[in-house]
UniProtKB/TrEMBL annotation:
This is Carbamoyltransferase. The keyword Methyltransferase does not apply. GO terms for biological process: protein maturation. It comes from Lacrimispora xylanisolvens. Residues 208-391 form the YrdC-like domain. Signal peptide: none annotated. Residues 10-96 form the Acylphosphatase-like domain. It catalyses: C-terminal L-cysteinyl-[HypE protein] + carbamoyl phosphate + ATP + H2O = C-terminal S-carboxamide-L-cysteinyl-[HypE protein] + AMP + phosphate + diphosphate + H(+); an acyl phosphate + H2O = a carboxylate + phosphate + H(+). InterPro entries: Acylphosphatase-like_dom, Acylphosphatase-like_dom_sf, Acylphosphatase_CS, Carbamoyltrans_HypF-like, Carbamoyltransferase_HypF, DHBP_synth_RibB-like_a/b_dom, HypF_C, HypF_C_2. The active site is at R25, N43. Pathway: Protein modification; [NiFe] hydrogenase maturation.
């Protein structure tokens, strides 16, 4: 007996996840045809809908194959099936897209796939050496879409009519390029151009001659702007000191290390230690820049600037493969002046008058929106995003479904590392990274992108959420939208971003450490322990506040912060600074002073007191160099001195007091290794976190701890803290889908906005 296994049945299947723009429908089509299924597949909103009719055995095999996802092209978050009556269907087809209330799913840009790379290198293939080769499984997506749905006529590829050979592949179900919207070849697609900035009057080179010229200029130590997926890169050799110094002058970037692109993982391993987790991250679809520990710095001194880490990444476009295959490792850094948006317009790049730039390698496939490279690292065995952009955006973060209607919410994020978020239903789309909104050009890009994404996602926000800071541009922009506005405290949003990722409702002990955030009392917060539940929070503990001069504007001057802290703690007598008398007089008279509980500023003070760094020439430099010394000590198995922070309680609020550490550090820094003291500071902070969490667990009856804020981009502190908390029985949650810094704020704001909407619509 077949127990009904051969009896024909019908089902409707709704597939949610990353299933659009990745060749999922053609894959479903072929799988269905191979198994003899009848029915159809189509895009509906951001999901895929399948109607399939066959024997139960065939349907079970079909569903099993979809879930198995052998080639890892797509990601299924949820798959729902419901029975249908058997109908008169003849075969299986792909039908036009349908409409739905779900948020539109816009595909992210994808790296060139292994099959295309094989064709790229095959002299007998008709796409041999084609720098724009792609198929349904790879190529640009988000950066070329002008309208939804994702069809060729709605992308910039409409500028390049298909030749007959490409059209045949595009319409053939058996082809890898069936419905591949980016399909092109050497006969009908974009082609390379090279502008020689040293001979502006010379005619531009094209195709392979353009590529050869760029390779020669780079090989001779020149700097070339190369057009990528989300904008231009400035490219040069990482081994030639003169070239790298010229690049720094071109960028206006003094000290921050440059990212380096390598042709393969095996090449990276010649320079860096690469763990299994790091290799998985390097080769993931997003192809982020991954911070890797260097074995030995064999590059020019100005490339990594004494960093222990190399920002390494792999080629994700065919052109990058061609360049790195010929030249080896290359610095690839965003083509912009530091602080400005990445350049994407050809006219802007080609008209740039810069004495350090030798040429421009470009093409005429338009870039619709600027998207920087993403940056990540492995912390405590799992990925941590530092910058979430190309490859991740605009894939949504999937939230818990709510029953109280579909909240359409806009969250503005913060002003530093700006990124906004839009949500409807259970999907939240965090925008690409923009930079700092104090720059006019960044603000304009932010505003333009808000209009762009709300249109593409088909969202009309009913609620706007912003930071409580009264002077944030992002908050003022939110007010201009003429929507109901919910203001959220900065550190509450940090913790809420972790709760959103992990589906936590609370109560949660939230530890939010960063450089600056506007507190409910008008002071600068940044070393916070919050009890979070629903839309509410209680400030249960914090770093003991100390006065600093200049408020938010004091962030660059680590030495001034050290003088401020030491004077407040009565420890400044042995710390030299020619401005000390002026600074202490201002503090005593409370002139231009503000109280801060910022852990970020405390890291600056510690770096300065230990004579490691005195100035943040780029954001977080003092803290990064303090961590560097601690990491060196950790690698050398140097035992740190025990210099614990003090915990006190005042008016029912716990306070973490670092004075004992600084008192000991001032007294013993001349006879104790700097690295040991730096590591001791990290241990003291981690132990202070664990001790306060133990006290709060007893008071608030929760063992869930969420860590967030920019300070937790510090690997040493984060790993020490997670270890100590887990040893004491806590469940520890951290950001994995968005950065712990301000780039993840908007997700937390969305979480709180949805909770507010739910409570308001009960």
């Amino acid at each position: 007996m077949d127990n009904g296994k051969n009896k024909e049945t019908a089902v409707k299947i709704k597939v949610c996840g990353i299933v659009q723009g990745v060749g999922f429908r053609p894959l479903v089509y072929r799988a269905a045809r191979e198994l003899g299924l009848k029915g159809w597949v189509r895009n509906v909103g951001g999901d895929v809908e399948i109607v399939a009719q066959a024997s139960k055995t065939a349907l079970d095999r079909f569903l099993s194959d979809l879930k198995e996802n052998k080639d890892q092209r797509y990601e299924i978050i949820n798959m729902e099936t419901e029975g249908l009556p058997v109908s008169d269907l003849e075969n299986f087809v792909i039908i036009p897209s349908g409409e739905a209330k779900e948020i539109s799913m816009i595909p992210a840009d994808l790296p060139v796939c292994p099959q295309c790379l094989k064709e790229l290198a095959d002299p007998l293939d008709r796409r041999y050496g084609n720098p724009f080769i792609s198929c349904m499984a790879c190529g640009p997506r988000y950066t070329i879409i002008e309208e939804m749905p994702y069809d060729r006529d709605n992308t910039v590829m409409k500028d390049f009519p298909m030749c007959s050979a490409c059209n045949k592949e595009y319409t053939s179900p058996e082809s890898r390029r069936f419905h591949a919207q980016t399909i092109s070849c050497n006969d009908c697609g974009p082609y390379l151009l090279y502008q020689d900035n040293r001979q502006r009057e010379a005619e531009e080179l094209t195709d392979r001659e353009a590529l050869k010229k760029a390779i020669k200029v780079l090989g001779d130590g020149g700097i070339v702007a190369v057009k990528g997926i989300g904008g231009y890169h400035l490219v040069c050799s990482p081994f030639l000191e003169k070239s790298v110094v010229r690049l720094r002058q071109c960028k206006g970037r003094e000290e921050k290390p440059f990212a380096v692109m390598f042709h393969s993982v095996s090449e990276i391993k010649k320079y860096c230690d690469v763990s299994r987790e790091e290799e998985i991250l390097l080769t993931s679809k997003a192809r982020p820049i991954v911070l890797l520990p260097m074995r030995e710095d064999l590059m020019a001194p100005s490339t990594n600037k004494k960093s222990l880490y190399c920002g390494a990444f792999l080629p994700y476009t065919p052109l990058q493969h061609l360049l790195t295959e010929e030249l080896g490792p290359l610095i690839m850094t965003s083509a912009n002046t530091s602080g400005q948006p990445i350049i994407r317009e050809d006219d802007c790049m080609c008209s740039l008058s810069d004495p350090y730039l030798d040429g421009v390698l470009y093409h005429r496939r338009r870039i619709v929106r600027s998207v920087d490279d993403s940056v990540a690292k492995i912390v405590a065995g799992s990925p941590q995003l530092i910058r979430r952009s190309r490859g991740y955006v605009p894939y949504p973060v999937f939230l818990q479904k709510e029953k109280a209607g579909e909240a359409e919410v806009f969250a503005a994020g913060g002003d530093l590392k700006a990124a906004f978020c839009l949500s409807r239903g259970a999907k939240a789309v965090v925008s690409q990274y923009f930079g700092d909104l104090e720059e006019f050009s960044v603000r304009e890009e932010y505003k333009k992108s808000y209009k762009d994404l709300t249109r593409l996602l088909n969202i009309t926000p009913k609620l706007a959420v912003c930071d409580q800071h009264p002077n944030y541009y992002s908050s003022r922009f939110t007010q201009s939208l003429m929507l109901p506005v919910m203001k959220v405290q900065h550190h509450h949003a940090h913790i809420a971003s972790v709760m959103a990722e992990h589906g936590l409702k609370g109560p949660v002990i939230g530890v939010a450490f960063d450089g600056t955030g506007y507190g409910t009392d008008g002071s600068i917060w940044g070393g916070e322990f919050l009890i979070c539940e629903g839309t509410e929070f209680v400030r249960a503990a914090h770093l003991r506040p100390f006065p600093i001069l200049g408020g938010d504007q004091s962030m660059r001057d680590g030495k001034k912060t050290a003088v401020c802290y030491l004077h407040h703690a009565g420890l400044d007598s042995s710390f030299p600074d020619e401005r000390k008398q002026l600074i202490t007089a201002a503090l005593d008279q409370r002139i231009n002073t503000v109280l801060t509980s910022s852990m970020g500023r405390l890291f600056d003070a510690a770096a300065s007191v230990l004579q490691i760094a005195h100035e943040n020439r780029y954001e977080g430099e003092c803290a990064i160099l303090l961590e560097r010394e601690a990491e060196i000590a950790r690698r050398e198995h140097i035992k740190p001195p025990s210099l614990p922070f003090l915990i006190t309680k005042e008016d029912g609020v716990l306070k973490l007091d670092p004075r004992p550490f600084f008192e000991a550090a001032v007294n013993c820094k001349d006879r104790t290794k700097t690295g040991a003291l730096a590591l001791g500071f990290h241990h003291a902070a981690a132990e202070g976190i664990a001790e306060i969490c133990e006290i709060l667990r007893d008071c608030h009856h929760t063992s869930d701890v969420a860590l967030s804020g920019g300070v937790f981009q510090n690997t040493v502190l984060t790993e020490l803290t997670i270890t100590l908390l887990k040893e004491r029985g806590f469940h520890v949650y951290v950001n994995r889908l968005v950065p712990p810094g301000d780039g993840g704020l908007s997700l937390g704001q969305i979480y709180l906005g949805r909770e507010h909407w739910k409570e308001s619509n009960r």
